[in-house]
Amino acid sequence: MLLLFLVAYCDIPLGTPIHIVPEFNGTFQIAYDEGVVRLKPEDEGAPGFVEDRVVVMRLYEGKYEITMQGFDLCHCPEKNEIVGCTEREASNLKSLYDIVTSEKGYSIKQDNKCWVKGEYDKMFKGYLIRLELCNNSNDQIWKFEDVELNNEEEDQARLALESSKKRLAYFTRHKISRKTVRPKVTTPMYYGFGTFRHTIDSTKLSDGK
Question: Is the pTM of this model over 0.90?
Answer without folding.
Answer: no
